[in-house]
């Protein structure tokens, strides 16, 4: 709970109401403040003119800290990667992926990552620390302000709004579950950022107890599980977490995950030449997922943490997909976005790819 001088971002509407009561104010001022922060995204208490002058003065002793821009890069395909610095100097990246009718923002939930997947560049950073709710939300607020984006389904003029949010940046969201859940509440609250949970996807390596806890959470996003192998032997080698939660155990937890009408689980499968991309793998994958309402996103390995691994050839990728779809399992080949600036899946690493088209532009750190 923020006392005077504390951080205001990341507090829920109820917590802000409680803070107002602590200050001897009416609780409804908490709602007003929450609306100012997230609906109108006024990040300077001085501009919250619907609040009394005396309350605004009290608020000036609190902080509303957005991350600080260190570098912004734009890829040839329009994807933009932000390198952001947090208050203690730790850094994270997030990626804005524009499409014709939508904008997807990919955010980080940890600085670094402890999981050590063989094919992922973020793993090379090691684990630094969990992000708090203010830092998770701060990435969204920063990019919305930087790009002057609306949020939800209706954009400004002819420009699409920020329509989709994916927790697929640096780190493992389910290792930071409490802070992630709190951010999800604010992101989806109609009085908060008002994004539909159906527009938010959380991607995990497959931590079984946490998947079960997420299933019971007040806000349940779409679930994506990074599978990338069809035998424990191969998955043990690619993703060490498999030794703790092997494929059967993981898929059992997935089978129990609640799905709404027309909703599916997503399985991400990084295709690596000669490792996990045989016809037999494709057929095994169909069998493994037979009982699940799911779809598969196929990602040819992006370069980065090579470890001697190579992407599957385009022919192999197509053949793999055809086996899945031929057996009735929906499968899509994901075109990598922002590869030239190391913004694609598994390429986030703070130091990677910054030689190309780096820009130091609009700083939004005046509140700090
Ligand atoms: N820790 C979570 C969130 C990170 S998401 C998770 O692992 O799901 C990162 C996604 O990028 C995952 O689906 C992962 O399998 C994928 N990925 C990692 N390295 C990759 C690479 N080199 N090429 C393509 N995809 C990769």
Strand order of the largest sheet: 12-11-10-9-8-7-4-3-2-1-13
Span between termini: 20 Å
Strand content: 15-25%
Poorly predicted regions are 355-368
Which CATH top level class of the largest domain fits?
Alpha Beta
Helix proportion = 25-40%
The gross shape turns out to be: elongated
Protein structure class:
alpha/beta
CATH superfamily membership of the largest domain: Aldolase class I
Overall pLDDT, averaged? 91
CATH architecture of the largest domain: Alpha-Beta Barrel
Largest sheet: 11 strands, mixed
Work out the number of β strands: 13
Cofactors, ions, other ligands: S-adenosyl-L-homocysteine
How many DSSP H or I helices?
10
Q: What's the number of domains?
A: 2
Order of helices and strands: HHHEEEEEEHEHEHEHHEHEHEE
Q: How big is the Rg?
A: 21 Å
CATH topology of the largest domain: TIM Barrel
């Amino acid at each position: 709970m923020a006392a005077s001088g504390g951080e205001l971002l990341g507090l829920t509407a109820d917590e802000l109401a409680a803070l107002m009561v602590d200050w001897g104010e009416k609780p409804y001022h908490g709602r007003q403040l929450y609306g100012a922060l997230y609906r109108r995204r006024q990040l300077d208490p001085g501009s919250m003119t619907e609040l009394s002058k005396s309350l605004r003065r009290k608020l000036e002793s609190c902080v509303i800290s957005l991350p600080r821009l260190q570098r912004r890069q734009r890829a040839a395909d329009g994807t933009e990667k932000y390198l952001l610095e947090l208050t203690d100097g730790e850094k994270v990246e997030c990626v804005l992926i524009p499409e014709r009718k939508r904008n997807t923002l990919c955010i980080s939930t940890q600085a670094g990552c402890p999981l050590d997947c063989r094919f992922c560049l973020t793993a090379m950073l090691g684990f630094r620390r969990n992000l708090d709710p203010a830092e998770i939300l701060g990435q969204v607020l920063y990019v919305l302000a930087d790009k002057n984006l609306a949020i939800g389904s209706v954009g400004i003029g002819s420009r699409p709004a920020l329509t989709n949010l994916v927790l697929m940046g640096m780190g493992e969201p389910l290792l930071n579950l409490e802070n992630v859940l709190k951010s999800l509440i604010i992101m989806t609250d109609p009085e908060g950022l008002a994004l539909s949970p159906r527009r938010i996807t959380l991607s995990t390596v497959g931590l079984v107890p946490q998947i079960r806890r997420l299933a019971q959470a007040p806000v349940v996003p779409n679930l994506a599980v990074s599978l990338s192998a069809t035998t424990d032997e191969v998955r043990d080698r690619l993703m060490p977490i498999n030794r703790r939660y092997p494929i059967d155990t993981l898929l059992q937890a997935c089978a129990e995950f609640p799905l709404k009408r027309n909703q599916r689980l997503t399985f991400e499968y990084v295709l690596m030449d000669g490792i996990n991309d045989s016809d037999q793998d494709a057929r095994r994958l169909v069998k493994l997922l037979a009982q699940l309402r799911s779809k598969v996103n196929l990602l040819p390995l992006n370069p980065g943490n090579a470890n001697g691994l190579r992407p599957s050839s385009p022919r192999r990728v197509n053949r793999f997909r055809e086996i899945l779809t031929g057996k009735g399992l929906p499968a899509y080949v994901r075109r990598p976005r922002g590869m030239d600036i190391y913004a694609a899946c598994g390429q986030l690493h703070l130091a990677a790819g910054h030689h190309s088209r780096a820009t130091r532009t609009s700083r939004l750190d005046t509140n700090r």
